[in-house]
């Protein structure tokens, strides 16, 4: 069980991986500027660099190509040069599970043998890919499975963009050359709601989103990207200025006393500090409203008084409140609120003038629902340790 009084761990650093001698540089996840610098450093004449960036960019992000040799609008010896120095690498799919409701959960292997999960959720008029920003999470929200994972490392921008590319691979979504243009998008939306706290990995998340939002390539607009944070206040204004995507806040409680227990980062930036920062977000990011996520935990945060306090607190902030019925995981210290309770809570919010959708749990049968993600290796590692402990080793 997670210890709710556990200290808040500082953010982890992304340790730049030293490439093995002769190792190839991965071009995935580089912003246009970084790609340009990288190509120039490899001998591309400066005058040509902008054009080469455009060409290579299109091959990677529009056509989904992974082999330099098929980039036919580049000279043969230039292709050979690229092939010698660079690679187009994305995480490897270790396993894929498909839920009864069509949700797909991917277990992905990244450098160092670490694993993260990404979840694809098909809906009637859109398809949402939920991606991870870290392996595990340094925050220890007591209701979240990811928060119980010990091993944590930041994902690189390549690994974040790579999750979108891998999903497109699996869904067969790259366009076919010469085929009529197909405007239907399988991955139409991206949510940074998988494993990890995206604002503790700000630079990589920002660079990755720049690539994902770029109009020539993956082309997922900033209005179709939602970043969810537990409330890392200093990075919120930066998110507005440097990414400009939609924001979701893991709010989950209406008093500091309860929020301290559920979302321990609240001890650092409490409800008042958080709300003051949020008031500026829609204007700064030019987005319409903020989503407040609220997990419904039986007898913990689900009374009518909580609902009333909630609408009072967020008064003046353009908002939508997304109620998330708690998704259980083995050993979880909470239970989901009863359905009538959730509805009564939703009703109070709705009557106060806010949209209050109840998030239907998706992919529960494959442990793909919100807060259920946790690397399989970590699970295995832990259970082996437990077995050993039980055996008195
Ligand atoms: N770290 C970020 C993003 C990942 S969590 C954040 O906390 O916002 C995505 C959402 O799922 C968050 O609102 C999180 O609080 C919620 N969540 C976590 N565990 C959950 C669970 N077991 N059941 C329902 N929602 C959960
Ligand atoms: Fe981390 Fe978000 Fe889970 Fe909290 S809810 S432990 S911030 S992933």
Compact summary:
The protein contains twelve helices and 13 strands. By secondary structure, the chain is of the alpha/beta class.
Keywords:
alpha/beta, two-stranded parallel ribbon, 12 helices, elongated, disordered N terminus, binds S-adenosyl-L-homocysteine, binds iron/sulfur cluster
Order of helices and strands: EHHHEEEEEEEHEHEHEHHHEHEHH
Q: Cα-atom Rg, whole angstroms?
A: 22 Å
Hetero compounds: S-adenosyl-L-homocysteine, iron/sulfur cluster
Helix share, percent: 25-40%
State the end-to-end distance: 22 Å
What is the helix tally? 12
Overall pLDDT score: 89
Strand order, sheet with most strands:
3-4-5-6-9-10-11-12-13
**Strand proportion:** 15-25%
Instruction: Let me know the number of strands.
Output: 13
């Amino acid at each position: 069980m997670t210890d709710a009084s556990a200290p808040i761990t500082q953010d982890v650093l992304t340790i730049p991986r030293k490439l093995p001698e002769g190792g190839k540089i991965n071009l995935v996840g580089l912003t246009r500027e970084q790609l340009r610098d990288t190509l120039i450093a490899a001998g591309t004449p400066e005058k040509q660099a902008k054009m080469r960036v455009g060409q290579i960019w299109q091959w990677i992000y529009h056509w989904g190509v992974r082999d330099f040799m098929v980039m036919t609008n580049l000279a043969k010896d230039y292709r050979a040069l690229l092939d010698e120095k660079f690679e187009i690498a994305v995480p490897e799919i270790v396993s894929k599970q498909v839920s009864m409701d069509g949700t797909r959960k991917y277990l992905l292997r990244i450098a160092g043998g670490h694993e993260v999960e990404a979840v694809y959720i098909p809906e009637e008029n859109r398809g949402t890919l939920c991606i991870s920003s870290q392996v595990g999470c340094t925050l220890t929200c007591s209701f979240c499975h990811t928060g119980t994972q010990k091993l944590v490392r930041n994902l690189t921008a390549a690994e974040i963009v790579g999750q979108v590319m891998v999903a497109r691979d699996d869904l067969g979504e790259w366009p076919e050359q010469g085929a009529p243009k197909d405007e239907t998008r399988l991955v139409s939306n991206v949510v940074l709601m998988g494993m990890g706290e995206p604002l503790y990995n700000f630079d990589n998340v920002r660079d990755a989103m720049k690539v994902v939002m770029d109009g020539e390539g993956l082309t997922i607009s900033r209005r179709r990207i939602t970043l969810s944070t537990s409330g890392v206040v200093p990075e919120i204004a930066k998110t507005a200025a440097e990414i400009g995507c939609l924001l979701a806040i893991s709010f989950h409680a209406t008093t500091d006393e309860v929020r301290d227990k559920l979302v321990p980062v609240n001890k650092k930036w409490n409800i008042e500090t958080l709300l003051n920062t949020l008031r500026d977000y829609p204007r700064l990011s030019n987005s319409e409203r903020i989503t407040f996520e609220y997990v419904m935990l039986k007898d913990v945060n689900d009374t009518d008084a909580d609902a009333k306090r909630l609408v009072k607190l967020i008064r003046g902030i353009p908002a939508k409140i997304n109620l998330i019925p708690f998704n259980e995981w083995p050993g979880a210290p909470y239970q989901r609120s009863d359905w009538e309770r959730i509805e009564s809570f939703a009703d109070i919010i709705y009557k106060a003038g806010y949209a209050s959708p109840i998030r239907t749990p998706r992919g529960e049968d494959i442990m793909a629902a919100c807060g259920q993600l946790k690397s399989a290796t970590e699970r295995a590692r832990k259970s082996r340790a437990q077995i050993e402990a039980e055996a008195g080793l």
